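Help needed: design a sequence for this.
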């Protein structure tokens, strides 16, 4: 019965793809599901007023967990940063180790899932609502989130399933069920694992797919008039490209992400650096605005509380630390000890939030785009900031947006697939079914706005954190024991550099 219900829920939007996606159908679907979706969204994103500013409790859930893991593991994100770089370089990699991808490929795949349109549009919203001071709190939350990634990715590798054909399956659904079962809480672990998997599938098809396709189509159609009104065509092209990558599984995804992630990061950060260099004289004032704005008591939206809330929200929405999604990608890594991937994973929030989100914020702040008072926010504000000096930068931003969206889609296809196979069982036929459904949803996302569906998928992604963090709290002692074992093997020389 459970399988039938899940299939019914996630195949409902599929039926819409056979109809012409006009405004009438779009509105009809939205009106149909809105009464069901709204209560779920309002529950997951339940907010409380703090000094006149709305604060989602789910964000607090993530930030508090990040603080706990930071303290519990002795500020590992700072102490272990150098070792993280060594592992990503492959200094300790033995090609004979079990797993499907290298540490760098695992990092690139997980990063491609987090580095997305949120780094462009979301930061624009945060600075618009919270002022430059939001950047300070965004950086702080990113640094704290490194400890969350460290914790969940160690567990992802430790409790993964390794199969005879060399493939692996891992992630929260496995460490929740297997890890809690070891502690005599099998029923709770199974419930949390199923809950997580259902939410992961919903998040993969919505926020990790339809939203990305929809927003990238909006960017392309704005600079390529040919696609205006042809969302289905753009979606079909994107679906074919996505399908060509994901059909080969994690190895194919990793081969693409290890090339596209560094490329898109260099493209976007490089463009941001050019803007900053051109406006270098305004940099000190921008940095000052970020620091003073973070603690300013004036103006609710731009004051300390507003800046803190917007910064924490953007960091949580962007780097997904505590959500559990990244541990699915890291579980496929080649390694002889699970702790190595914890060190690799802690680099994600640093790159995603501390580097890329901060660059976006600096461009918006340094060009003064956020103070124009014309109501421009989100990706439009970021685009305006990038075009402040050169109009051509709008094209760079559009290309970056599409690359970010594409990389997010192929990574989330793998997350959704692993949640799917956890619920319905391993097997090529079952994997193909999900991949086909995922590609169809690319077309749907490009063709229709489906506002309530996107809201629902966002709620699903953050609902993943409810189950995941409960498990992380309960399994923290296991992670500490694994870290102690790893350090002992490093010191004894049992684990040593391979090059």
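Sure. Designed sequence:
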């Amino acid at each position: 019965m459970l399988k039938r219900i899940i299939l019914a829920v996630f195949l409902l939007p599929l039926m819409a793809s056979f109809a012409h996606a006009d405004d009438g159908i779009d509105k009809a679907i939205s009106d149909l599901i809105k009464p069901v979706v709204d209560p779920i969204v309002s529950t997951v994103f339940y907010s409380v007023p703090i000094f006149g500013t709305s604060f989602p409790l789910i964000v607090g859930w993530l930030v508090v967990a990040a603080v706990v893991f930071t303290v519990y593991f002795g500020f590992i994100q700072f102490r272990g940063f150098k070792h993280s770089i060594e592992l990503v370089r492959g200094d300790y990699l033995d090609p004979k180790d079990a797993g499907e991808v290298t540490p760098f490929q695992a990092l690139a795949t997980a990063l491609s899932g987090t580095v997305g349109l949120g780094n462009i549009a979301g930061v624009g919203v945060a600075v618009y609502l919270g002022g430059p001071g939001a950047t300070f709190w965004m950086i702080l939350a990113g640094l704290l989130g490194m400890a969350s990634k460290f914790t969940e990715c160690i567990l992802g590798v430790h409790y993964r399933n390794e199969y005879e054909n060399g493939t692996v399956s891992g992630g929260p659904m496995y460490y929740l069920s297997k890890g809690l079962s070891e502690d005599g809480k099998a029923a709770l672990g199974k419930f949390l694992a199923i809950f997580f998997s259902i939410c992961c599938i919903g998040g993969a098809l919505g926020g990790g797919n339809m939203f990305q396709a929809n927003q990238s189509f909006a960017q392309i159609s704005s600079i390529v008039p040919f696609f205006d009104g042809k969302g289905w065509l753009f979606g079909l092209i994107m679906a074919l490209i996505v399908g060509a990558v994901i059909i080969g599984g994690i190895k194919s995804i990793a081969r693409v992400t290890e090339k596209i992630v560094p490329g898109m990061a260099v493209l976007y950060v490089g463009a941001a650096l050019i803007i900053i260099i051109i406006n270098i004289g305004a940099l000190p004032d921008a940095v000052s605005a970020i620091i003073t704005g973070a603690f300013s008591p004036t103006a609710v939206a731009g004051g300390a509380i507003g800046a803190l809330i917007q910064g924490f929200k953007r960091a949580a929405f962007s780097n997904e630390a505590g959500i559990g999604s990244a541990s699915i990608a890291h579980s496929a890594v080649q390694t002889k000890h699970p702790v190595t991937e914890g060190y690799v994973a802690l680099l994600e929030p640093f790159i995603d939030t501390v580097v890329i989100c901060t660059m976006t914020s600096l461009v918006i702040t340094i060009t003064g785009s956020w103070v124009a008072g014309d109501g421009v926010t989100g990706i439009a504000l970021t685009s305006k900031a990038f075009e402040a000096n050169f109009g051509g930068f709008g094209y760079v931003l559009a290309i970056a947006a599409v690359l970010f969206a594409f990389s997010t889609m192929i990574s989330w296809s793998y997350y959704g697939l692993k949640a799917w196979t956890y619920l319905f069982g391993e097997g090529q036929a079952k994997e193909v079914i999900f991949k086909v459904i995922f590609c169809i949803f690319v077309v749907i996302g490009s063709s229709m706005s489906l506002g309530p569906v996107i809201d629902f998928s966002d709620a699903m992604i953050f609902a993943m954190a409810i189950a995941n963090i409960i498990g992380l709290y309960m399994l923290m002692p296991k992670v500490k024991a694994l870290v102690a074992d790893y350090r002992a093997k490093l010191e004894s020389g049992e684990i040593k550099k391979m090059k």
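Confidence is low (pLDDT under 50) at residues 4-21.
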